[in-house]
């Protein structure tokens, strides 16, 4: 049994909207105030503020700012726990996380509540300080009672609720089919079977409209009502682009998981690749990292195996038929002839076949991590 979050759309009433706005503001204030206190203590005294010290300080904050008592205390306590997690991630060298940042009023807002601050009964959720259940548009029933919920509002003004529930994954029937995947820009992914997915390029599709709105936004006076309206339009368009990209990746990853027992992919250094100014926008629009992340957790849930091949493996330069390796292969050269066997080679399909071969070899030897076939 594992934990799984179920995210649903939320349409709060005016009274609930006011309560959530107040809760978002209090949580944001506690986060920023505590973060400033931690940062100042380290810069001036060289001291690290512990989580227990931050929790004790919350009592004095409530005394100095009585309006913090208007929301559930669980929200403020969970805010401090989230900040502790952020600092733990920052000090973990393997995660390479950034230093926790201050939260902005016009950014994404969220609060987290445990069972002490909400009630789940007959498929309805009522949070503390609210008189009526939250109007949630359920897309599916929850498998169990939530252990915690997270309510968020994005920059487009949409509300969501994420319910953390116990989940028992069911393994899919075993299939003998295996596949290698080469990630690309002309096509999001190319399989060793020769199938090319295409690349919808969601950002490029709406780029002209987005640029037009941003030019209009730049001319609006800061703090004006018209600027706020235009900010909402820009945020809604960004949300639409992100939703389209996420939906396409979900469908593609689900198809691959359903059809294949072993999926072999290349472990790319995406953080380093986006530093290339010529390709950064296209790589970010493709969503390679999210695609591999979805393959990883869906494979674990479905009883499939995801094998990551080292990024240094020369999958494009090796001929899949005879093993001949070319010395130079520019990125612009999509087809080449093998000097060893004379075959005409499609660069992407050849790379996918090599990734599949290397991944299966590593899987047979028990190496299923990012260093397989190094």
Question: How would you sum up this structure, described in words?
Answer:
α1 crosses α3, α2 packs antiparallel against α3 and α5 runs antiparallel to α6. β12 (335-337) and β13 form a beta hairpin. The chain has 2 domains: 2-167, no CATH class; 178-198 and 253-364, no CATH class. The protein is of the alpha+beta class and 374 residues long. It is built from 10 helices and 13 strands. Strands 2-6-7-1-5 form a 5-stranded antiparallel sheet. Strands 9-8-10-11 form a 4-stranded mixed sheet. A two-stranded antiparallel ribbon has the order 3-4. The protein is globular, with a radius of gyration of 25 Å. 25% of the residues are buried.
Tell me the total number of β-strands.
13
Q: Which geometry do the CA atoms define? A: globular
Largest sheet strand order: 2-6-7-1-5
Radius of gyration: 25 Å
Question: What kind of assembly state do the chains in view correspond to?
Answer: single chain
Q: State which percent range the strand residues make up.
A: 15-25%
One letter per element, helices H and strands E, the order comes to: EHHHEEEEEEEEHHHEHHHEEEH
Mean pLDDT comes to: 93
Judged by helices, strands and strand pairing, the structural class is alpha+beta
Uncertain ranges? none
Helix content: 40-55%
Number of helices: 10
Question: Strand count, sense and closure of the main sheet?
Answer: 5 strands, antiparallel
Indicate how many domains the architecture comprises.
2
Distance between the termini: 33 Å
């Amino acid at each position: 049994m594992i934990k799984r979050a179920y995210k649903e759309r939320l349409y709060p009433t005016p009274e609930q909207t006011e309560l959530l706005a107040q809760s978002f503001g209090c949580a944001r204030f506690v986060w920023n105030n505590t973060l400033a206190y931690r940062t100042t203590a380290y810069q001036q005294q060289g001291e690290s503020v512990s989580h227990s010290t931050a929790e004790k300080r919350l009592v004095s904050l409530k005394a100095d700012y009585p309006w913090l008592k208007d929301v559930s205390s669980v929200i403020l306590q969970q805010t401090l726990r989230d900040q502790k997690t952020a600092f733990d991630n920052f000090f973990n060298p393997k995660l390479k996380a950034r230093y926790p940042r201050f939260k902005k009023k016009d950014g994404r807002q969220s609060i987290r509540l445990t069972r002490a601050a909400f009630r789940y009964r007959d498929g309805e959720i009522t949070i503390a300080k609210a008189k009526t259940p939250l109007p949630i548009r359920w897309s599916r029933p929850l498998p169990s009672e939530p252990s915690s919920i997270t309510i968020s509002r994005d920059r487009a003004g949409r509300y969501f609720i994420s319910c953390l529930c116990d989940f028992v994954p069911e393994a899919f029937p075993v299939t003998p089919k295996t596949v290698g995947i080469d990630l690309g820009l002309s096509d999001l992914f190319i399989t060793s079977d020769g199938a090319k997915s295409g690349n919808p390029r969601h950002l490029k599709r709406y780029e002209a409209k987005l640029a037009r709105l941003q030019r209009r936004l730049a001319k609006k006076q800061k703090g004006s009502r018209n600027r706020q309206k235009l900010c909402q339009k820009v945020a809604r368009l960004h949300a639409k682009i992100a939703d389209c990209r996420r939906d396409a990746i979900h469908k593609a990853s689900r198809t691959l998981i359903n059809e294949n027992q072993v999926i072999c992919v290349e472990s790319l250094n995406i953080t380093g690749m986006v530093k290339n100014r010529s390709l950064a926008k296209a790589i970010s629009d493709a969503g390679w990292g999210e695609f591999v992340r979805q393959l990883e957790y869906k494979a674990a849930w479905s009883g499939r195996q995801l094998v990551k091949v080292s990024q240094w493996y020369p999958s494009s330069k090796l001929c899949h038929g005879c093993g001949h390796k070319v010395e130079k292969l520019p990125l612009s050269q999509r087809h080449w002839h093998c000097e060893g066997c004379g075959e005409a080679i499609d660069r992407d399909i050849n790379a996918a076949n090599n990734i599949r071969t290397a991944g299966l070899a590593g899987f047979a030897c028990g190496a299923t991590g990012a260093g397989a076939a190094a």
